[in-house]
Description:
- The structure holds 2 protein chains of 2 kinds.
- Helix content of chain A is about 50%, strand content about 15%.
- A 4-stranded parallel β-sheet of chain A has the order 2-1-3-4, with helices on both faces.
- In chain A, strand 3, helix 3 and strand 4 form a beta-alpha-beta unit.
- Chain B is an alpha/beta fold.
- Helices cover about 35% and strands about 20% of the residues of chain B.
- Chain B is built from 5 helices and 5 strands.
- In chain B, helix 1 crosses helix 5.
- Classes of the chains: A alpha/beta, B alpha/beta.
- At the A-B interface, helix 1, strand 2, helix 2 and helix 5 of A face helix 1, strand 2 and helix 2 of B.
Amino acid sequence: MRQDCVLVLEPDVLVRHPLTQYLRECGYRVLEATSYDEARMLLKSVDAVLMNMAADAGAFAFTSWVRQNHPGVVLLLGGNLANVTEHAGELCDEGPAPPGSAPHHTTILDRIRRSLAARDRDRS
Amino acid sequence: MLTQPLSGLALYCARVLVVEDELFIRLDIADALRTTGLIVVEAASADDAATFVDAGEPLDALFTDVQLPGVLNGLSLARRVQARHPNAAIVITSGNDMFRKEALGLGTFVSKPYEPLCVVRLINDLLDPTQV
Lengths: 124, 132
């Protein structure tokens, strides 16, 4: 059976890694892109893109490009970190793995926030 | 030559940080590592990887290229990982042999181009020395 493939486009590893790990635990094939250039190279082989629209000003241009060039790709756009993890949670609720087999998306969100806080503490 | 199938490798939940700016090289090695049950954290630069290390996330192994975009290179990152995670296995790769000596002072050196399955076996062996 073909696995649905989700591309997670997120420059920050502390956000990207927990999200991708979560989606893999839910049964998806997951590709990771750290930039728009990387994402463009991977779009041919994905079913959906999960990204944070608030990440930077290039997000709107990128999503327009995807709409024009890959109209079959589903765009899951979050306006902030909580929205993005919520989209991931919805994918997992509807995805290939039975519900309950992976941690709830709020757990992932908490973990991301803890990691970001730890990094910020380390930098200050 | 790799003769044992990957299914023969021990399955771990160990976490490997893979740092490579060439997208498809990174995808290949990350996918190959995941097939053995490892949790793989992908980073496209040493700077990005350092944020992961600085956040205190658990880490069992580092596989990094040397020449990477950004401020840090793979050798600087390896020193950082060594300081924070003294038990982590460190494998450094480069197509430039001039980095070999310094890399060997930090861990294991693998010349590019490499065969992903050989790197997978190497990392699994480093994570579980009883398998050597």
